[in-house]
Automatic annotation (TrEMBL):
<comment type="function">
    <text>Involved in pre-mRNA splicing as component of the activated spliceosome. As a component of the minor spliceosome, involved in the splicing of U12-type introns in pre-mRNAs.</text>
</comment>
<dbReference type="InterPro" id="IPR045844">
    <property type="entry name" value="RRM_Ist3-like"/>
</dbReference>
<keyword id="KW-0694">RNA-binding</keyword>
<dbReference type="GO" id="GO:0005686">
    <property type="term" value="C:U2 snRNP"/>
</dbReference>
<dbReference type="GO" id="GO:0000398">
    <property type="term" value="P:mRNA splicing, via spliceosome"/>
</dbReference>
<feature type="compositionally biased region" description="Basic residues">
    <location>
        <begin position="160"/>
        <end position="175"/>
    </location>
</feature>
<comment type="subunit">
    <text>Part of the activated spliceosome B/catalytic step 1 spliceosome, one of the forms of the spliceosome which has a well-formed active site but still cannot catalyze the branching reaction and is composed of at least 52 proteins, the U2, U5 and U6 snRNAs and the pre-mRNA. Component of the minor spliceosome, which splices U12-type introns.</text>
</comment>
<feature type="compositionally biased region" description="Basic residues">
    <location>
        <begin position="223"/>
        <end position="234"/>
    </location>
</feature>
<feature type="compositionally biased region" description="Basic and acidic residues">
    <location>
        <begin position="191"/>
        <end position="208"/>
    </location>
</feature>
<dbReference type="InterPro" id="IPR012677">
    <property type="entry name" value="Nucleotide-bd_a/b_plait_sf"/>
</dbReference>
<dbReference type="GO" id="GO:0003723">
    <property type="term" value="F:RNA binding"/>
</dbReference>
<dbReference type="InterPro" id="IPR035979">
    <property type="entry name" value="RBD_domain_sf"/>
</dbReference>
<feature type="region of interest" description="Disordered">
    <location>
        <begin position="113"/>
        <end position="255"/>
    </location>
</feature>
<comment type="similarity">
    <text>Belongs to the IST3 family.</text>
</comment>
<feature type="domain" description="RRM">
    <location>
        <begin position="37"/>
        <end position="115"/>
    </location>
</feature>
<dbReference type="GO" id="GO:0071011">
    <property type="term" value="C:precatalytic spliceosome"/>
</dbReference>
<protein>
    <recommendedName>
        <fullName>RNA-binding motif protein, X-linked 2</fullName>
    </recommendedName>
</protein>
Length: 255
């Protein structure tokens, strides 16, 4: 991860504690590093020495150990290191006040160290392993009492309340999603029903139009047949009249 991103993340954690009104360091995010007095310092200028770093960081507590990482071959400073305070509470002040500041034209990163791994020395112990140059922890670790202290109870209650809030938020989000899906389903069903009703209406209108057109065609055919039959009748009458008149004429001529 980018070092500047880590600097911003630490600043965001501090801002969240300030927004929530948490000022007790036992309730802040620093409490998870209460057993370690080491801090990590990154982004330092390459020309700084141990004395320069001590002069800057000693204003928030007594420093008992410092380890600036250097190249094994050249001995040049790599720009980062570790520092141990006598009092663990000094690490909180250092992280809150030094993280993100500019030192020698560079933005430095200061963060807690949960488990510090000391560098290996040149001397070996009886088992043949290299001895550590410094101890694992400088400040005394807080003993774990059998009965929880009221501060620990407060921390546990605060964590539980946070978990409950998160669960409630998740439930509310799920309920909102379910309500939204139900509403969408209802809307889709309503649209489907409206579409079916429109389709039935259209079919009914079409069938009624077909029926009316058929009735009209039947009526036209009936009229045509009636007209045709009436014409044929009139013609037959005219023929009968003509025959009758010719018969009368013949009978008169004979007489």
């Amino acid at each position: 991860m980018n070092p500047l991103t880590n600097v911003r993340n630490i600043g965001k954690l501090n801002d969240q504690d300030l927004q929530n009104g948490i000022f007790d360091h036992n309730l802040t995010w620093h409490s998870q590093y209460k057993d370690s007095a080491f801090i990590f310092i990154g982004g330092l200028p390459y020309d700084l020495t141990e004395g320069d770093v001590l002069a800057v960081f000693s204003q928030y507590g007594e420093i008992v150990n410092i380890n600036l990482v250097r190249d094994k071959k050249t001995g040049k400073f790599k720009g980062y290191g570790f520092l141990c305070y006598e009092d663990q509470r000094s690490t909180i002040l250092a992280v809150d006040n030094f993280n993100g500041i500019k030192l020698g034209g560079r933005t430095i990163r200061v963060d807690h160290v949960g488990e510090y791994r000391p560098p290996k020395g040149d001397e070996k112990d009886e088992s043949g392993k290299y001895k550590d140059k410094v101890e694992v922890s400088c400040a005394p670790r807080t003993p774990s009492p059998c009965t929880p202290s009221p501060k620990n109870n407060l921390v546990d209650e605060f964590k539980k309340s946070k978990k409950k809030k998160k669960k409630k938020e998740k439930k509310s989000k799920k309920d909102k999603k379910s309500d939204k899906t139900k509403h969408e389903r209802k809307g889709s069903l309503q649209k489907y029903k409206e579409g079916e009703q429109k389709e039935e209406k259209r079919r009914f209108e079409k069938s009624s139009e077909l029926i009316t057109s058929k009735n009209q065609s039947f009526e036209a055919k009936d009229r045509y047949r009636h007209h045709k039959s009436s014409r044929s009748r009139s013609r037959s009458r005219d023929r009968d009249r003509g025959k009758h008149s010719t018969r009368n004429l013949r009978s008169r001529s004979r007489s």
